[in-house]
Amino acid sequence: MSKSTKSADWCIDDGAIAICGTDMEEYARDSMGERWCFTCRERHEFWWVFMAPTGMSYYGPTAHVEGKSRHCSDLFPGWYREASDE
Question: What's the rounded Cα separation, in Å, for the pair 86 and 29?
Answer without folding.
Answer: 13
